[in-house]
């Protein structure tokens, strides 16, 4: 398969067009400012994301340990069986979350510029 001159020009134009869209609209990732911890849909703690700390919250199955370190947050220990919440790793951008569903613990990142609507279904 060979590219002729028109194909190469088209590829270059598409790259510049996509770069322009990325620059104009942004990446969509806003840095978070706060870590909000919820247990059974009730907010139990709210910490600044830039302050390093370890928080322990009591869920339905037991204690979940949440680590906030270097502007990122993650679930370190949880009493659930599959440990998917631990394997999900760090979260740092606004509107992202990590959840331990069996223990009903949700760790969510909030920022100043929250996106109110994710989608509109009509």
List low-confidence stretches: none
**Span of the ends, CA to CA:** 45 Å
Strand order of the largest sheet: 2-1-7-6
| Cα-atom radius of gyration | 20 Å
Q: What share of residues are in beta strands? A: 25-35%
Please work out how many helical segments DSSP would assign.
2
Shape, principal axes of CA atoms: elongated
Question: How many strands appear in the DSSP assignment?
Answer: 7
What attributes characterize this protein structure?
122 residues; 3-stranded antiparallel sheet; 20% helix; elongated
What's the helix and strand layout?
Blueprint: H1 5-25, E1 34-39, E2 42-48, E3 53-58, E4 63-69, E5 72-77, H2 84-87, E6 97-100, E7 105-110
Antiparallel strand pairs: 1-2, 1-7, 3-4, 4-5, 6-7
Overview of this protein structure:
The protein has helices at residues 5-25, 84-87, and strands at 34-39, 42-48, 53-58, 63-69, 72-77, 97-100, 105-110. A hairpin with a 2-residue loop joins β1 and β2. By secondary structure, the protein is α+β, with helices and mostly antiparallel strands. The chain is built from 2 helices and 7 strands, in the order αβββββαββ. It is elongated, with a radius of gyration of 20 Å.
